[in-house]
Amino acid sequence: MKIFRLTLLAAALSPLALSSALAQNTGKIKVGLMLPYTGTFAALGNAIENGFRLHVMEHGGKLEGREVEFVKVDDESDPAKATDNVNKLIKRDNVDVLIGTVHSGVAMAMAKVAKDTGTLLIVPNAGADAVTGPMCAPNIFRSSFSNWQPGYASGEVVAKKGHKKVVTITWKYAAGDESVRGFKEAFEKSGGKVVKELSLPFPNVEFQALLTDIAATKPDAVYTFFAGGGAVKFVKDYAAAGLKKTIPLYGSGFLTDGTLDAQGADAEGLETVLHYADSLNTKRDNEFRLSYAKTFKLQPDVYAVQGYDAAQMLAVGLKGVKGDLSKKAEFAAAVEAAKIDSPRGPFTISKAHNPVQDMYLRKVVGKENTLVGIASKGLTDPARGCKM
Ligand code: PHB
Q: CA-to-CA distance for 277 and 364, rounded, in angstroms?
């Protein structure tokens, strides 16, 4: 028995075994991008990929010294296809890490598979509270936000403005529900009342009947979560219905991020809350914005920042384990101890692996979400249900 064990040890340390272990830590890293490249969130998926690639390009095409190979899947923001898509990346393509996605329902399916298989997952947008709540795990991280965060900070802002009676309107799925829940928690704590919660199925954009309902209800203000193509249409329809002049519209900042070219004057003056703004005017953000604009001939938005930071978090973790992604606890410890030097401003990662970050109040001026001020400093998601 002793001899057998010694033989095993010798085999483990043979030059061949040693060199293949080294190759594993220094060879290419295979990154699986599972993002929407079609549908209402297509632009968001592209911006995330651009942001991720920008960080890699700035480091000579490498992450912590390892060349990066990308494998891509269009998840179509379709939860029904999510489990198959993520399994393809893990089983067929053998990715080392999963980066995805935008849609909360798809992200929850990814998180379930990541948890079951132990695959490293970094979520570069989807805010599903569960991902850093009941589904939290040592190998699951988020570079973006929880749906609760901008919702809660918005509730405080709208209450401070003196509004008492609010109608909410959103898509009926995790992101919309949780954004409204976070809003309501803060708004009602401050004495306000959500008098009506309106919704329509994702990704529908037939807003007319709901806008008629808002006009008839006459609230002091409206709070909304929409994003991507749906946000463009909602802002335009809200203005066309004549509501912009009579009932102030607030939202989590996705309402006006990456959408202003298409929304034009209909978005002018809208105030929203998010963990990014276009005019932060810090050295870090100015450099990022210039680099992004030069590389992609596009202006960056919050999604680009989240993609960039997903790459930064992966680099920090890789450094902590000297490239050996099988060291999951050490990887997590390195990310948890890091301060991520984000264009949004530096942030840390909570024990549940969600960013602890400032939430900004922004106002649309021309083609920019300009900074008004900090709505909530270092806001930490409560991570309800996370046992880790
Ligand atoms: C989400 O589904 O969690 C989601 C989608 C788009 C956003 C933000 C959140 O802009």
A: 10
